[in-house]
Amino acid sequence: xxxxxxxxxxxxxxxxxxxxxxxxxxxxxxxxxxxxxxxxxxxxxxxxxxxxxxxxxxxxxxxxxxxxxxxxxxxxxxxxxxxxxxxxxxxxxxxxxxxxxxxxxxxxxxxxxxxxxxxxxxxxxxxxxxxxxxxxxxxxxxxxxxxxxxxxxxxxxxxxxxxxxxxxxxxxxxxxxxxxxxxxxxxxxxxxxxxxxxxxxxxxxxxxxxxxxxxxxxxxxxxxxxxxxxxxxxxxxxxxxxxxxxxxxxxxxxxxxxxxxxxxxxxxxxxxxxxxxxxxxxxxxxxxxxxx
Length: 292
Prior knowledge:
The protein is mainly alpha-helical. It has 11 helices and 4 strands; from the N terminus they run ααααβββααααβααα. Strands 1-4 form a two-stranded antiparallel ribbon. Helix 2 packs parallel to helix 4 (91-113), helix 5 crosses helix 6 and helix 10 (238-258) packs antiparallel against helix 11 (264-278). The mean pLDDT is 86.
């Protein structure tokens, strides 16, 4: 029973981490209709910026806010300088650019900060919580991770469902020409979408790095699992991204705890294949309108 409880709690925290990254992917897809393969590298850059500030004795939460601001600015610059020139051309062009951007950011970070592993602090304890004489499989930082992911998800739901800004962002992503005719400043909406997604990615990077070691490749595994979580829940659904992340985290935690860690990637691949075969749009994607 103790092992089941620890495995479940560990899976929830792991799922929240995947969900944090999936939310960034969901946001940029929902606001620009682009799959951003550079999302992990962008989050890695902002995490290193935060680490540099923390090492310079800047308080953790000040560095956290600075990382979000850096992510916001980085996303806006990338959209304006790199993505904007291919706007209106084949959709695959922007996707290929994000793959190239992934490699460029990796190289620049390695040159700037080095490739060695560095410890990244957490704002609260990373030791397991004790109930009486028994330690349970969750830490205060794990609880903080779950709370932050829930707050980010709620913010995205409010943004896209209940605000005019969210409606304009979605309209600009779905049909730029019609949106321009209706008075929507499409360019600004796309820039804002990239900036917000990069800021959410910065949050994911800080949560993933907390209490662990970082190097320029520390976000790479989350590219795969984050995409699986987003596709599982529905790339267009913030709630689906979170639930997809939790399902994936719990599944991999049970496999790792009861069968073996080496089977986790195979199970993740199996989940992705089943979802793509049974419901390609994801478990929580809105029903697509059909023209008859």
